[in-house]
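Lab notebook, bench 4. The sequencing result for the construct came back, and we need a structural model before the next group meeting so we can plan mutations. Quick request posted to the team channel:

Model the 3D structure of this chain.
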Amino acid sequence: MAGQTSLTALTRRAAGALLGAGLVFVAATPASAQETMNLGWGTPLDSNNGVFAKKFAELVDSYTDGEVEVKLRPSGQISSEDDAFKALQLGTVDGYLISQNNISPHFGLMDVFVLPYVFRSRDHAVAVLDGEVGDFIKQELLERTGVHLLSFNNVEYRDLYNSVRPIDSFEDFGGLKYRVPKNEVMIATFRAFGAEPVPLAWSETPTALQTGTIDGGDNGTSVILDMKFYEFADHLAILEHFSGFTPLLVSDRFMSGLSDEQAEAVRRAAQEAQAHQRTVMSDQIDKVREALAGHGMRVTYPDKSKFIEAAQGVQDSFATEKGEEFRSLLERIRETEG
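Done. Here's the predicted structure in token form:
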């Protein structure tokens, strides 16, 4: 406006006066805002998942120079495992460790990893997950659901527990009510083994076991110990029918809020925390089984031949039902060395 000195002009005059007086004026630069990831999972802090999460948080802090903080939220603090995937898609949860069988209702190709006896050994599972098949799954999951899978993490077997009788043979398995996740492959597998599957959310499992609503179930060996299921189930059967792992999933909303350098640091931290967890847990399964026996569980090792035969039928059935893409992935897994 004519006749009125602008604010910009006043600012320039003030700056000139300061410089003329030999004074140095330094504008304050605000510190970059810290990004925070709330990372959740369903088991306690001192668990298999906790081994990964604590290392991941430490590495993220180091690799981002404190610009990204990971806050640990164990024991279902921010979501149940069954609800977490949808929350990741909505961006209301930043990160969650979700068992592969609870991912597949939202991304059907994940069921190829749930198939009974699909992995010949732990080494075979790691070779598949860390190879071309694992990379394909990560890419397709992001494209189809908008959720980032940053690491597959430790691979362990699901061991079977029940409160009724020891499982010494295929025939002993039948007729019992076993809790299973709400996963069609796992439900079909337990039926093929002759049992009565009871689909339940993970959060409902401890109560159902305590009240006798179910006779037993199966979980990663370390989870059985972490959750103290030995207090309600006397029998442990080592079938190694499912290989379990709990990938780190992160919302696109969180990842999109990071700089390229921060995002790369988070991915690097996830891979290195995965390696750390696998190393720490590699020799733990036998120790955990010994600990469960020490808590009074009777441990049996049934002949697997009839279980494997029944599992082959489940594999073939789902390969036919789910189409060519699924069949191709199954063949690639079978062909992978390890």
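Confidence is low (pLDDT under 50) at residues 1-32.
Will bring this to the meeting.
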